[in-house]
Structure formats: C-alpha cells, structure tokens
Write a structure and sequence with these properties.
With 326 residues, the chain is α/β, with parallel strands linked by helices. It folds into two domains: 2-242, P-loop containing nucleotide triphosphate hydrolases (Rossmann fold), CATH 3.40.50.300; 244-325, Alpha-Beta Plaits, CATH 3.30.70. It is built from ten helices and 14 strands. The chain has a six-stranded mixed sheet with strand order 6-7-8-3-9-10, sandwiched between helices. Strands 2-1-4-5 form a four-stranded antiparallel sheet. A hairpin with a 2-residue loop joins β9 and β10 (229-235). α3 (113-123) packs parallel to α5. The radius of gyration is 23 Å and the shape is elongated. Bound molecules: adenosine-5'-triphosphate and magnesium ion. The site of adenosine-5'-triphosphate has 13 residues, from α1. Adenosine-5'-triphosphate (ATP) binds at residues 32, 34, 36, 38, 56, 58-64, 103.
Length: 326
Amino acid sequence: MYLNNHASQAGHSVQSTQAETIVRIEGLSKVYESGFQALKNVDLEIRRGEIFALLGPNGAGKTTLISIICGLVNPSSGTVHVDGHHILHDYRAARSKIGLVPQELTTDAFETVWSTVTLSRGLFGKRSNPAHIEKVLKDLTLWDKRNNKLMTLSGGMKRRVLIAKALSHEPQVLFLDEPTAGVDVELRRDMWNVVAALRASGVTIILTTHYIEEAEEMADRVGVINNGEIVLVEGKNELMRKLGSKQLTLHLPEKLSQLPPHLAQHQLEIADDGHELVYTYDAQGEDAGIANLLADLNQAGIHFTDLQTRQSSLEEIFVNLVKERS
Ligand SMILES: Nc1ncnc2c1ncn2[C@@H]1O[C@H](COP(=O)(O)OP(=O)(O)OP(=O)(O)O)[C@@H](O)[C@H]1O
Ligand SMILES: [Mg+2]
C-alpha cells in the first residue's frame, strides 16, 4: 500500500545515488504554427526519483514543454530522451515510461471509472492486469466508485481518475500539469500525499504549479520558466531561502506618519496612509525578528489592533527574480 505513506516524506533532498538523469532535454525550441515561439532553447535534466516542480506564470511554456516530452506536441528543434529513449525516434518506448495527468479535465462522461482506467493501460500495449488497476483505484480511494460513470463523480474524483489513468501502465516518470488548480485545501493535501507516496515507490515526478507552498512542500528541485526560457534551476531549499519572504501587516489604531528612529533596524514600511505597518522577513528565518520587533514597537508606544501574515506568492518571487536578472 505505497500510497499510505505520509507527506512528510516529500521534500527530502534527493540522495546522490539517485542523481542519474531520467529525462534529458537539450536545446529544445517550439514555434507554434501561428509563429509564436513558446520555448527557446531549453536545456533541462530531471533526476531519477526526484520531485521536480516547474514554476512560471501563465503562458510561460510549462504545458508546451510537458506536451513535447509526452509526444502530444512536436518540437521545432532540439532533443528529448526519456530513460535513454529518444522521444521521436523511439517514441513508443519513451512514451511507455511516462504517465501524464493533463491540465485540462477531459474525461469520457459515459465511461465507468474501471473501464476508462483499464482502457488507458491497454493503449500502451500493456497486458491487462486487473490486480494493478485494483491497487491504483484503491490507493486513490476510487475503488467504491469503480462502476460509476465519470459524469457522476465530483471534480476532485475526476482528477483522481486522471491520475489513475496516468498510473495505469506503471510509468517511471509522472507529469502532473497543475494537479491542484482549483481544488480545495483538503484534496490538495490528499494529492500531496499521493505524490509523496509515488515518489517513495521510486516514480520520478514533474509537476507544474502556481502555488508556492506546493513547491515548498513537495519539490526536491525547482525550475523557473518565463517566456519560454528556463531562468533558474535550483534545489528547493536554496530557492526558498534566497527568494521566499513573508510579510507581517500590523493594523494601527492611530495614524503613524513617521517611523521612530530606533525602529529603523527592522524592515518596516508604513502603508495605507499611516494605518498599517508592514514588516518583511525571510520565510525560512526564525521568529526572533518578530519577537524583537514587537518588543521595540511596544517600547515605542506603537499599538496595533490586528495583524496578518502573508507569504510572497510565486508571482512576486518571480517578478523579483526577473528584475534581478535584467
Ligand atoms: N496551439 C498553440 N498555438 C499557438 N500558440 C500556443 C498554442 N499552445 C500554446 N500556445 C502559446 O504558447 C505559450 C505557452 O503556453 P503554455 O500552455 O505552454 O503555457 P503554460 O506555462 O502552461 O501556462 P499556464 O500556466 O497558463 O498553464 C502561450 O503564449 C500560449 O498562448
Ligand atoms: Mg499550462
């Protein structure tokens, strides 16, 4: 029951024994028929057994990249090998290694869960294996729904069916394109557990996401893509340490027009026309900064009625990253 492990296994760094490359992308470019260049000379290596999060704003090229690796979109130039198999010259072998959970929810409304997942395995020319399908459905808590038509499932269950389909042929590499877009917090947690358990069973996972906490929770390494270019690939912990920041907003009952001098050592800004103090701090840092700040505020006679914390979003981190690089 490999899916019963805990999410705490996710995010541990990949051991050096697993550093072998499983997906090798070299000089990959894509110009769509419209003339739009969606990928520009992308080089990227995915390591066997890791969880790799591909981050980037809308339209960055994430789905295009995944679609090329999975053989749904033709590259304009460059090469991709999956477990040593060239994705064009050795398409069937390469594709058989891959499971894809697509971004768009498309399911055959009138099929049952069981038949759609079984059929999916058949499409890869794999011999039927009801025991495997049963295990996948049980692990994804879909077993009770196996005879349901897909149209009778909730959105979250449909997403699980997509994962079950992607796992039906026992892939070594699983692509998850925005697996948790628009799903509730609880289901997102469940998904994380599923992904963590898959990784523990040896599957390499590449996921795209807009949620920084998802990358933070799950990924061993993170790649940032913007305008069709990979602008950064780094260990998750490194990236979070360098780029993640949090904000603490204090609501002030009395308008503050100027910061008292002895608060200058803190990263403070006055906002909302003097009715808010915004403190920015390192997301990975300790809380000592906040304790000191609160003590200093108290001493300065500055009171607050309410406080909120906020983590910088991917967009903000991303904007900072792009700014830094230009
Ligand atoms: N079939 C197509 N023809 C022309 N342009 C396309 C096509 N598919 C995608 N594009 C363009 O390529 C760019 C990258 O799209 P892609 O779907 O790869 O982005 P993405 O990073 O997955 O974005 P999102 O986060 O919104 O899913 C976009 O500008 C998109 O409009
Ligand atoms: Mg996409």
